[in-house]
Amino acid sequence: MRIAMIGTGYVGLVSGACFSEFGVDVCCVDKDVGKIERLKRGEIPIYEPGLEDLVARNVAAGRLSFTTDLREAMQGVDAVFIAVGTPSRRGDGHADLSYVYGAAAEIAACIDRYTVVVTKSTVPVGTGREVARIIRENRPDADFDVASNPEFLREGSAIGDFMRPDRVVIGTSSPRAQEVMRALYRPLYLIETPIVMTELETAELIKYAANAFLAVKITFINEIADLCEKVGANVHDVARGMGLDGRIGRKFLHAGPGYGGSCFPKDTLALVRTAQQNESPVRIVETVVDINDRRKKAMAGRIVDACGGTVAGKTVAVLGVTFKPNTDDMRDAPALDIVPALQAAGATVRAFDPAGMHEAEKLLPGVTWCADSYAALDGADCVAIVTEWNEFRALDLKRVKALLRAPVMVDLRNVYNPAEMAAAGFIYTSIGRPLPGAGAPAA
Ligand SMILES: NC(=O)c1ccc[n+]([C@@H]2O[C@H](COP(=O)([O-])OP(=O)(O)OC[C@H]3O[C@@H](n4cnc5c(N)ncnc54)[C@H](O)[C@@H]3O)[C@@H](O)[C@H]2O)c1
């Protein structure tokens, strides 16, 4: 089989490379000439563990290629996937579908045989029908069907997620398109991955409902964490006690600085707007969006409090700036709220991130970027762990203490144990885990 993948970002490049690993001939297309040139040279434009080897292996086997020319990519394909960005539209929070619709018009010009046009981008209900309308309008003679195939991979573990997903969702009412999609995902069928076959609109909504539900779960435990601090309870144990209930599940119950990233913030907002537009509001998601925005803004205040109420003239070491570990993605990362707020309060910020600094230096001016964690800590008045990269989990605490001007650590990811940190002489604060007795109400 042969497919074209439009967009070689976090989703398109991973999906394209994984399909080629399944044995499909894949041609990846991007408008970004620089990206395609780098890919042709064997360089990977994003940080994603395992991707470089996967791409190299499939390019060498002749199954994976890159181009900026869609017509060339679409020659003889069974399906073309749209995996372009759908960011929040400035001003109103709706998903900006201009890239998707632009791609649809370009596809129309290139269809030369029966083709399944697949939206892999996260798109609001109704987008697939509009994609079909655009193609039909531009090319009344074209032989095609539209399918929705939302992607659930997570950055940082994207290849494993694509190769062994919890489920694959395919939305189309065309038996012919269903057959093509089943054939493409055949290797997953063989490992008994559940395939949810449904209508276009249902598939589109599944993706938003899933992301919004996860955002609700995170926000719920964040609010419980705040309550824990007031009443002297430990959110880690609360989450464990809750999560062992099979109806609740243990995942996504980690309290922190608020969700960020390329998906949850924009997808929750887009769902809110779709629901409002259809006069069927999702008030729980509206509330979650509001709470999470406030939470990210409030996090700098925790660092200021830990520094004795002011950071004016002080230096804060920030460890981790990406929205989560194992990615270089800075989209809507909590650090984008925290760092400027600290600077506005008069702090100098020294920071280190294992993969995100190249991207972050464009977004966070005035930060001193350091070669490693210990260089960032050198002479700082406080250290804040903002992203839980593995290498921050095993810092040499004696060295940390020696480098800091004061042994103050604000751990926004609950990486360390409060009692152990206190025993090691740190003034340590984390999320929802007061020292036993410290936050208990007066008897
Ligand atoms: N990043 C994730 O973890 C993730 C997970 C699941 C779903 N999604 C969804 O997948 C979609 C893509 O996300 P991403 O993070 O990969 O985006 P991205 O911004 O990393 O990549 C999009 C790419 O599309 C290219 N592009 C745009 N228009 C084009 C056109 N007409 N022709 C060729 N190339 C074009 C851009 O140059 C860019 O390289 C979004 O809808 C997103 O919500 C993302």
Question: How would you portray this structure in words?
Answer:
The protein is an alpha/beta fold. The chain folds into 2 domains: 2-198, NAD(P)-binding Rossmann-like Domain (Rossmann fold), CATH 3.40.50.720; 212-429, Rossmann fold (3-Layer(aba) Sandwich). Helices cover 44% and strands 13% of the residues. The protein has 18 helices and 14 strands. It has helices at residues 10-21, 33-40, 51-60, 70-73, 98-110, 127-138, 158-163, 175-184, 186-190, 200-231, 235-243, 264-277, 283-306, 335-344, 357-363, 373-377, 397-403, 418-423; strands at residues 2-6, 25-29, 64-67, 79-82, 115-119, 144-148, 168-171, 195-198, 315-319, 348-352, 368-369, 382-385, 408-411, 427-429. The strands form 3 sheets. The chain has a 6-stranded parallel sheet with strand order 3-2-1-4-5-6, with helices on both faces. It has a 6-stranded parallel sheet with strand order 11-10-9-12-13-14. A two-stranded parallel ribbon has the order 7-8. β1, α1 (10-21) and β2 form a beta-alpha-beta unit. α1 (10-21) crosses α3, α10 packs parallel to α13 (283-306) and α13 (283-306) crosses α14 (335-344). The longest helix has 32 residues, at 200-231. The radius of gyration is 24 Å and the shape is globular. The model has no long low-confidence stretch (mean pLDDT 97). Residues 6-12, 29-32, 35, 83-86, 99, 102-103, 106, 121-122, 151, 153, 155, 262-263 line the site of nicotinamide-adenine-dinucleotide (NAD).
